[in-house]
Amino acid sequence: MQSTHHNAKPKINLWVYNHPAFGISDQVAFFVSAFEQNGYEVDVSDRPNNAALNVVIENFAPHTKRVLMEFCNENSARVAVIMTEHIDFVGWKILIHGDPLWSQNDYMQPTTQVTRLRNLIALQPYLKCFFVLGDLPELQNIDEMILDVEVHKIPFPTMPVVQIEGRPPDCDLLFTGVLTDYRQSFLTGLSAMGLVIQSPPGFVSHEKRDEMNEQSKLVLNIPQRRSWRWLSSMRILAALRCGRATVSLGTNDTCEMAKCTYQIDIEKEDWRELLRSYVGDWRGLYERAHADYTAMAVDFERRHPFPHDMVEYWAITDRLSGKATA
Predict the structure, then answer these.
(1) Which of 12, 92, 253, 259 has the most crowded CB, counting CB atoms within 10 A?
(2) Backbone φ/ψ region at 319: left (φ over 0), alpha (ψ -120 to 50), beta
(3) pTM for this prediction
(4) Which one-letter DSSP state was computed for residue 264?
């Protein structure tokens, strides 16, 4: 639902100074699409703008935390933080990625987990709210750990249908995630099935990843480890933007994006045949996935309307009208 104050919407500045561009391109695309589709002007910049509402993406080191504090103090401003990691507070325990803090894994080192969390908590006085892009991460009870910071879900942006024409791609499956031991063993097994798989060794740019999506019939989602419960929503969305569906191996997630993802139970004997049949029907899989995404996005926005009132109130408390353009 659109706000009644169409012309007075505050400008939004997505301030991405604490991230390399390749690591956040999907979050940026989601955020910009969602806000622009709701009538906001959005800039993406590595500098803050004191004539806009500033939004940052979580992941703070001591230095980047200080930069944010200084800006907020000098401008009597607060920022919204887009949350990207699964941080929950359950039974008086802090969980990161579903495991207790300090758990050892080959996806994010314990010291990194703790540093990120400590810096986020230290920023509490400067935070207006947390934004979640869609429904993940869940952030269970995070308001009991970081007080007075509300969580607002940003509805999924609408996405046009991609016309898939021309010669079929040469590659069957693409995987572009960080290669953990679990993921690597999976990819080795899939190659042994005779499937043609692309998997770049390191991070690739947004443009290169999109190009690789278009050169593959399907995109793969493989969890970081066997116990990992969640789909990578942003990877699935990026694939849909390129006209590709995603097949997820060994997950049984019930998040919103699961409604437009093909999850395969690898405990079943015939899962390899199922995967092969999906590769054969990759065009049909995309068409169904896009229709399912569109229906899901409409339903999600009905249940979680865009937070226009909060944004409007934030512009008042940050006294935007009285500030000169930076």
Answers:
(1) 12
(2) left
(3) 0.90
(4) E
